[in-house]
Each structure stands twice: as structure tokens, then as C-alpha cells.
Amino acid sequence: MLTGTMQVNSRQHLEVGGCDTVELAREFGTPLYVMDEELIRQNCRSYVQALKDNYPRGRIIYAGKAFLVLAMARLVEEEGLGLDIVSGGELYTALKAGFPPGRLYFHGSNKTTGELLDALQSGTGRIVVDSFMELEELIELSGRCGTHETGIMLRIRPGVEAHTHGYIQTGKEDSKFGFGLHDGSAMRAVKKALRAGNGLALKGFHCHIGSQILQLEPFRLAAEVMVNFMAAVRDETGFVAGELDLGGGLGIRYQPGDNPPSIKAFVESIADAVKDTARRVDIALPELMLEPGRSITGEAGITLYRVGVIKDIPAIRRYVSVDGGMTDNIRPALYQARYEAILANRAAEAAGEKVTIAGKACESGDILIEEAALPAVQKGDLVAVFSTGAYCYSMASNYNRNPRPAVVFVRGGRPKLVVRRESYEHIIALDEL
Ligand code: LLP
Q1: 285 and 351, same structural domain?
Q2: In a domain, 245, yes or no
Q3: C-alpha distances in Å from residue 97, one per residue of 75, 86, 418
Q4: Considering only CA atoms, which residue is closest to atom 23 of ligand 1?
Q5: Minimal-distance CA residue to ligand 1 atom 5
Q6: pLDDT for 381-408, tens place per residue?
Q7: Domain CATH number, residue 12
Q8: CATH number, position 288
Q9: CA-CA distances (angstroms) from residue 180 to 154, 185, 207, 222?
Q10: Could you give the dihedral angle defined by the CA atoms of residues 35, 39, 44 and 47, in that order, rounded to the nearest 10 degrees?
């Protein structure tokens, strides 16, 4: 499962970005999120290059929900990508990092009035409208602000079902997101948006069919459905959309058996589907946007944990407890997600036993990995769990009043602390007696 700059060094320790993980744990404590900055940048560049090679005009937009902190927003800006945000908090983070507002894309199915106002006033590049109520409110607010033109896109449900976990299917017909194609609400929304006025300009359409998708077919299908919809809109209203944002969703490798398409193959296949369909329906190629989150940061992250209590239940299993768990990685408990781990301090040793890696939360379901194959584990060993760079820190909690871990970017042998570890003072900081 070693990827990016990860390797086993001469001390038989796991090394990332030229940094020894045993040293990182000593310096920054555990649990610790460690992110391979070089791999994140390479992934950004692979996307940008693949789009450039396969399509005349477009933009890669990083989906901040996967992992967003000031340093990440800065990195995304340096790599020239756009940024997908879904809340006032993500907008605030982006602006505080100096991210250019014109490259922000504001998504979400229930943006609050305050969030819409913040978006309008900050000059957020695109607001991706998700419902009739939002469109009406936006027209009203934008009339009241009366500042500059704001570009909007409409989120469409293409009705494509991707084979992934049920909780993260969002493109199917029964979903809280977007305007339905089949019930006619998408076309009605277009007509309403075209009449909006008040400085709002309809730029195009958006869809997102799900996450951790390991096949290309659903993406091609969604691209085809969306370009066909563009043609239907042109035929019915005369409006030719200039922008098409096909969302994110490319899966990553969580386990050795996972075999996701490469970034290059993913972009190429979507670009081809858009070009082929556009030719067939004779419509000008829209600017093409893609919004990857997980496939940019996921495999670049590992989490380091210190082993504490080891407990044998005879003839059943051995529990190896670590100093984090569902509070820093909710995905096993929430999605039955499977992860792979090694002992970072004895990285070259062959696996000798199968153990259950348990978190420290007061909850039987706080199991990080069942049947993890590891060398004979001892108290004090350092466990590294792979592919935790997306949707782990961003979904972390303070359950049991556990402080959230620090995040370190590593590159060229130098660690850079990008999020400090929470302290107990942080835990009570907002409490009132
Ligand atoms: N664009 C939109 C509008 C989205 O809703 C999402 C993810 C993305 C882009 C990025 O998708 P990605 O490339 O990361 O698959 N918490 C879940 C994942 C939820 C994804 C929600 N939307 C998990 O941990 O698996």
C-alpha cells in the first residue's frame, strides 16, 4: 500500500515525504494525520494536465469537503485549481487563506440566507443552485445587494446510479440534491433562472453522481445525459450553456485489491464522452469542470496511532487498541469502510497475526480495522493506517471530549505543522458555566 513518496527506510521505519514516521510521532504526538504534500500536488497536476491534453477548455475544482484547512486552500490556489465549497465555514477558510473568490464554486442543498449573502458579497465565482426555494431567495438577495454580476449554475440529478455505498449516492432520482431531469423540474429551473435578472447570470449545469466510484461507465453515462440535457435546453429555450461541471467521485485504493482508474483515464474518458455527445447533438463544447476531492488527498494521507491495551478473547479475537479511532476516522463505523495498516516502527516485518484494531471511544462500534494482518503487536508500537487523507480530518469529532489530532504536511524531509493538536482548553473553550 506504499504510494507517493512512502517507503521503508534503513531503520525499517515507514517514511513519508522524506520524514521518518517514528520521528514524526515523537515530535508531534499521536494520533497524527501525515500528508504527503508532493503526492497531493502531483495529483492536482495530473488532473490539470489530463484535462489540458484531452479537452479544449476547462477547470479542475478541488472539493474542499474532502480535506480543507488554510494550508490546503493555499496549496490548491498555488496549483491553479478552483475550489468547491459547501458552507460558510469553507468559504471563510478559503477567503482567510487568500483564495481568489472568483475561483470558488459554492454548492449545498440548504445554504442559509447568511451563507448566500456571504457568497454574493465576497464575489464567489459560481453559486450552484440546488432548489427552487434557493433560486427565489437568491434572486431576492441579489436584487437587494445590487453589486456585481453573479454566475450561477444549476445542479441536476442525472438519475445515474453509481455502484457505491448507498449513503453516498447522490445522482439518483430519489435524492435531496438538485433538480430532477425526469420530473421536468430541471427544465423549469432553467426557464426560471434565465428570467432571474437582478445580476444573476445562468452559466451552465452541474451534477455529481457519487463518491468512491471505481468504474468509468457511470461517469460516461452522466456526461452523456448532461450534454443531451444541454441540447434539450437549447432546443426549448435557445440558451446554450457555456459551462458543464460533472462533479467528482473517482475512487481511490483503500485496500490492495482496489483498482481505481487512473486520473488520466478518468479525465480522458469523461472528456471523450462530452466531446462525442456534443458532436452527436451538434452543440458547442462547454467549458468542462471536474470536482475531485478524495482522489486528490485520499491516498496522500496516513494516520499514525500508538498502540495501548491489547486484549485477547480466547478463540475469538485479539483486540489491539489505539489512541484514536472513530473520532478521527468515522468512515469504518459510518460506511463500513475497509482500511489497510502496517506497523510504522517495524515496517519491513512480515505479518504474523490477524488482529482487530479498536479505537478508544466508548462505543463497541469503534473498530478501525477488523482482521488487520500485522506482525506480533506490542504496546507502544506505531500503527499507520493508509489512505486517510480524505474525509477523515474533515469528518472528525470531539466525541468523548477527545481532542482532534494535529495535521502535518511532509515534503523533502521537512515536516510542516498545518493544524495544531487540540488541547483540553480547546475542548472547553466555548463552554459557559
Ligand atoms: N462535488 C460535489 C458536489 C460533491 O458533493 C462531492 C462529494 C465532490 C464533488 C467530491 O467527491 P469525491 O471526488 O471526493 O468523491 N463522506 C463520504 C463522501 C461524501 C462525498 C460527498 N460529496 C465518504 O467519506 O466517503
Answers
A1: no
A2: yes
A3: 10, 16, 12
A4: 391
A5: 208
A6: 999 999 999 999 999 999 999 999 999 9
A7: 2.40.37.10
A8: 3.20.20.10
A9: 11, 5, 11, 13
A10: -140
Q: Please report which confidence band the pLDDT of residue 169 belongs to, taking 50, 70 and 90 as the band edges.
A: very low
Q: Is residue 44 annotated as a catalytic residue, yes or no?
A: no
Number of domains in the chain: 2
User: How many Å apart are CA 8 and CA 431, to the nearest integer?
Assistant: 44
User: What ranges in 164-299 are assigned the alpha helix state H?
Assistant: 185-194, 217-237, 263-281, 294-297
Tell me the CA–centroid distance for residue 179 and ligand 1, in Å. Answer: 18
CA of 250 to the centre of ligand 1 (A): 9
Q: How far is the CA of 209 from the centre of ligand 1 (A)?
A: 9
What's the predicted TM-score (pTM) here? 0.97
Nearest CA to ligand 1 atom 20: 211
Which atom, in ligand 1's list, is nearest to the CA of 128? Answer: 3
Q: Which helix (H) or strand (E) holds 259?
A: none
- Exposed / middle / buried, residue 19 (Cβ in 10 Å: 0-12, 13-18, 19+): buried
167 pLDDT exceeds 60? no
Of 19, 44, 145, 362, catalytic: 362
Q: Which atom of ligand 1 is nearest to the CA of 210?
A: 15
Report, as an integer, the average pLDDT of 294-301.
98
* Domain stops at, among 234, 265, 292: 292
